[in-house]
Write a structure and sequence with these properties.
alpha/beta; five-stranded mixed beta sheet; 14 strands; about 10% strand; disordered C terminus
Length: about 700
């Protein structure tokens, strides 16, 4: 017998090792891939979810209820029991529950079918009962009355009567434990909700912890500096910080120090956050990213605590980079809050940030990168050297930069052969990188809506029109006289701007409603670095050309020039009170670029000066308006021809204006200047880089 057991065990071991060898060679899915002996690999077992216990328990309770279901007894009265059941001898047993004042009736098996109400309930001969129940009178009177019935009626002599007290043990336990269990459940529920609330995992216990997202070598972003088109100077500054973190000896061997912080400043959509993402993708160091609003919480002192925790984590992982997006949420200059005298949580957070950035404690290896489009409202202590040593201005892209941005965003699109990137860049002056990305996306959507296989040039032009002017609304009902007024109004803009030297070149005019506008004129703004007084006056005159055309043609004015008047008034006030272009006011500017007078209720000039400013603004607007009317009077026939053509076609272009009004002499000069610039650039290719 021992030899036989030994042989069986040996055969089992051989079979096991043969199976293991085959499994190792085949590596079939679903097999038992046991790790080799002596290896550190562990078998991954599926994690057990505790919620399955609740599901199994619920199924068991429901199944128990179904298994043990029996028909409920039928309610009756003592009078019916006496007159029908007892007299016929149908009752086998009466169980009287004294403490409940109730009696249960058990019928004889062969008498159950005599009662239709029991059949409706599903009772059968095999149903043990109870079959009926009724509320008993007082036990003494009930017992005496029942004894009299049993003496007088022989059929009731065999009926068994039982008097008991019944207690529901589980019901008492449940009624005692249910309130306690309910309180425990509510406590657990709110505790879990709090753990998912402010502060992330841990809830209110970790509310003072930093909310920064950590990007390291394991969670690198896919954005690199190749995805950031244009912005050559700003990108060079940021690349230098990344280069220092990768090879610090290159900079420190000469005794230099890397800047402790860099502030990205610029209009919205110019690529500040994108550049930070590229920095996170390029740097091989930990990168902490968070928004300025993440520091602020409903609890007092949380912001300062999160700042401390952020820098504590950064010091542990130094060298590293901390990026704070929209830092103006906490970096607003102190003392400018209207709630003067209050305990401002934002100021406490800013104070802690200032201390951590350049306090007594050293933050060697921790570089702060921040972004904002409102640098004018930041606290001066935050901008000083030693905190943010560098302010990198990310401006709107120039023509060359727009071409590079278009190349990036047009890569995933299927383009037609007639798409010229340089042409698109010229058609989008003043567009930011985000606007250009939106143009590319809208063009693809428009092409798909028209069931095209490629995105064509016209799709991009339609996308630019939609972004600038809004969606066409051809279904809007416009009366004939209103449409005529709109046509002459827009023709007035087109005619005056065509005849003025410094007005923006016109591209096209339309009377098709777009957005809230009933008509629109598209111009190609000249990319100027400075603007003269003559240029501003010409622009103001072209803006008022629509109102002037209405008055000259119809002898009345309408509300259609509301937007034009707003532009002209704002421009005139800027010329007088900001740019010092008024002879009576002189070379004075009342604009505060620091933002310190934002919450001031007093003007920086006297009432007499205010009256003089108002008078000068009125003179500028009225003189420009009179100038526009004189131009339209001189070219009255041409203006009428432009308006009638606009009524006929609804959209006209610069070629139509050139045919009616003649060529602009200033256009030839502009083309000559641009051609000379190209030739100079070709002769001296390094000159532009030096500038």
């Amino acid at each position: 017998m021992p030899d036989r057991n030994f042989n069986i065990n040996r055969k089992l071991k051989q079979t096991y090792f043969i199976y293991m060898a085959e499994n190792k060679e085949n590596k079939k899915d679903g097999g038992f891939n046991f790790p080799p002996v002596g290896s550190n690999k562990t078998i991954k077992t599926p994690k057990f979810n505790g919620y399955w216990l609740y599901i199994i328990l619920a199924i068991a309770i429901i199944g128990f209820q179904f298994i043990n279901t029996q028909s409920e007894p039928v309610r009756t009265t003592w009078q019916e029991v006496k007159s029908k059941m007892l007299e016929k001898g149908d009752i086998a047993e009466i169980s009287v529950i004294k403490n409940k004042g109730q009696a249960n009736i058990f019928l004889k098996p062969d008498r159950i079918e005599n009662y239709s109400q029991l059949k409706a309930k599903g009772f059968k001969k095999s149903s043990r009962g109870p079959h009926f129940f009724f509320t008993t009178p007082p036990v003494e009177s009930f017992s005496a009355e029942l004894s009299d019935i049993q003496k007088n009626i022989p059929e009731t002599s065999g009926t068994k009567v039982d008097y008991t007290d019944e207690y529901d043990g589980w019901g008492n336990i449940f009624s005692f434990l249910f309130p306690i269990a309910l309180l425990i459940f509510i406590w657990i529920f709110f505790f879990r909700r709090m753990s998912k609330g402010p502060g992330g995992p841990g809830g209110v216990f970790n509310v003072g912890k930093s909310q920064a997202k950590l990007f390291d070598k394991d969670t690198n972003t896919k954005v690199t500096f190749k995805d950031v088109a244009g912005l050559a100077e700003a990108k060079q500054e940021v690349e230098e910080i990344v280069s220092f973190l990768k090879s610090p000896d290159k900079y420190t061997k000469l005794g230099g120090k890397i800047p402790k912080g860099a502030l990205l400043v610029g209009p919205p959509g110019t690529g500040k956050t994108l550049m930070a993402k590229a920095m996170a993708g390029e740097a091989n160091v930990p990168f902490f990213s968070m928004s300025g609003s993440d520091f602020v919480e409903m609890f007092v002192g949380v912001g300062a605590s999160r700042v401390r925790d952020l820098f504590k984590q950064a010091k542990e992982k130094a060298p590293c980079i901390i990026f704070i997006d929209e830092i103006d949420a906490i970096g607003r200059a102190r003392g400018k809050n209207p709630n003067i005298g209050s305990n401002d949580e934002r100021e406490n957070t800013l104070n802690q940030l200032l201390t951590e950035m350049d306090g007594f404690e050293t933050n060697s290896g921790v570089i702060i990168l921040a972004a904002t489009n409102r640098a004018d409202i930041l606290d001066s202590a935050l901008l000083r050297a030693g905190r943010f040593d560098r302010q990198i201005y990310v401006d709107l892209p120039e023509l060359k930069d727009r071409e590079e941005i278009f190349k990036v965003h047009l890569k995933p699109l299927k383009l037609a052969d007639n798409v010229d990137i340089s042409f698109l860049a010229k058609q989008t002056p003043g567009f930011s990188g985000a606007d250009i990305a939106n143009v590319a996306n809208e063009a693809a959507l428009i092409a798909a809506r028209k069931d095209k296989n490629e995105v064509e040039k016209q799709d991009f032009l339609d996308a630019i029109d939609r972004i600038v002017g809004g969606l066409e609304n051809r279904s809007k009902v416009i009366k004939a006289n209103e449409k005529k007024a709109i046509a002459y109004h827009e023709a007035g803009h087109a005619t005056v701007s065509w005849l003025l030297e410094h007005a923006h070149p016109l591209l096209k005019v339309t009377i098709v409603p777009r957005g809230k506008a009933l008509g629109a004129a598209w111009y190609l703004p000249q990319e100027r670095q400075i603007t003269t007084k003559e240029q501003l006056l010409d622009q103001m005159c072209s803006v008022l050309g629509g109102r002037a055309a209405e008055e000259l043609t119809f002898g009345q004015i309408s509300t259609g020039a509301q937007n034009d008047l707003e532009k002209a008034t704002k421009q005139a006030y800027a010329m007088v009170s900001i740019f010092g272009m008024s002879e009576k006011i002189g070379n004075l500017s009342y604009y505060d670029s620091t933002g310190q007078s934002d919450f001031s209720f007093t003007k920086p000039y006297s009432e007499k000066t205010a009256e003089l400013i108002d008078a000068e603004v009125k003179d500028l607007v009225e003189s420009s308006y009179s100038r526009a009317k004189e131009l339209l009077k001189s070219y009255q026939n041409q203006h009428r021809e432009v308006a009638e053509l606009l009524l006929e076609r609804e959209v006209i272009f610069s070629d139509d204006l050139e045919r009616i009004l003649g060529k602009r002499p200033w256009k030839e000069e502009e083309e000559t200047e641009s051609q000379e610039e190209k030739e100079n650039t070709a002769e001296n290719p390094g000159e532009e880089e030096n500038q």
